[in-house]
Amino acid sequence: MANARHRPQKRTNESSQHTPTVQKISRHLLGMLYTVKQVRIEPTTCNSDENKVKRKEFAAAFVEYQRNGDFIVYYDETNFNIYCHRSVGRSKQRTRATIVLPPSKGPNLQVQCAVSAEIGIVSHRLERGSIKMDKNAQFVEEFYRAAKASEAYTASFVGKKVVIVLDNAPAHSQTEQRVASHDDLVLLA
Hints:
6 helices
């Protein structure tokens, strides 16, 4: 009777001969090198044809300004969080490690900075809360004037354009309309 359990059973009908087993499917999938992975979200506009064309135009314009020897300033901002607390603590055995914190994290701090290869830091500013479009335009005007007044500009770039390279941050969306126009100012976004 024990031998009957371990004997392979004969297949009786035709359809069972073509039914794949779990092990057979597993071997087949392993042969195809499929693995389980964390899903990565990729926005539909990320590499669209329209965005590729825009990137190419941006790169071509940037290279042209470099060839012309224009004064290039890079501008960006970042969130700076001063709310810090420990995530690991010490306590006696069988007691919790606790820390008493204020109920809110406080206002956001934004650091705005404009840098150039010739000068280094052209201008910087710390803002509490989010950056509004008007404040952003004021800062662009401020570091445009600082770049024009710099020793590096007056020594080597007189008569050249000041090219300000921006990213696509929401605060930059209306910068061109809000900044006073100058003949030698180019906003490249």
